[in-house]
Write the structure tokens for this entry.
Amino acid sequence: MERTLILIKPDGVARGLVGQIVARIEAKGYAIDALDLRSATAAELAAHYAEHEGKPFYQPLVDFMSEGPIVSIIASGQGVIPGFRSLAGATDPTAAAPGTIRGDLGRDWGEKVQKNLVHGSDSTESAEREIGIWYPAEG
Ligand code: GTP
Ligand code: MG
């Protein structure tokens, strides 16, 4: 079964939006196969964001992701990889369409990094790679 790695980033946890975000994933019909709340290690973040190393937003992004606990989720279902990206909405919460997680629940907070509540894998290869980072036993 197709699966994806979802993160509820520190802004989503701090703002008390975990229940609403999980409810949207479930309401769409995807299964929650694993769910865990904890702070990320520096090694996990370096591995997760390796593709962005060297970009101007890399360090602000890693700092932001280290601000507090994260919820990591493995979700599954036919089409879940693009389906969750569609639920999440555009990367920039200001541009994200109403009806999406980022469009309904996110905004510009005037900071260097886009605090956009969630992450979702963008391909089958990314999903399997990221599941291996956050859930080594499931990789
Ligand atoms: P993720 O699901 O978090 O991976 O978001 P994404 O796939 O929509 O975006 P991408 O992987 O390109 O970037 C990862 C994260 O870096 C984003 O979620 C943003 O928080 C941040 N980011 C990406 N592009 C920019 C940018 O141009 N400027 C700033 N400030 N942050 C960015
Ligand atoms: Mg991405």
